[in-house]
Write the structure tokens for this entry.
Amino acid sequence: MFKEGTSLTGKTPTELISEDFKIFTIDEDKIGIAQVYTMDPESLKDMKSDLLSLMKDRIRNEGYSTFIVMLTDIFKQASEMIVVGENKDLIAKSFGKTIENNSFYAKGVLSRKKQVVPPIMNAITNIEEL
């Protein structure tokens, strides 16, 4: 029953990136982060290319340096981080990950404010050290 309630089937990419969206400015980088909660991350597969295209459009049209969609699996207590933009490799590296097909898996990452923004902020402000 919970899986059905958190399925992404029937939602559009526009709805997904607009539902729970926040903007963070770190130094001179404007980063958009949307968070989508689900117990059915497989339901995103069919719309991922459209989602990436829309994210890239937002970067161009709204001046973001990076755009992230956190696909948070509340059952597995992890997030798939879908990232586009100039800082995508740096962001993956700040989590000890390598980006592949514009995403990486972050086990235990559930909070945008407490677990995502701080390592990104640290990576961007200390970019020359990485």
Observations:
- Helices lie at 2-5, 13-19, 48-62, 88-94, 112-125.
- The two ends are 44 Å apart (CA to CA).
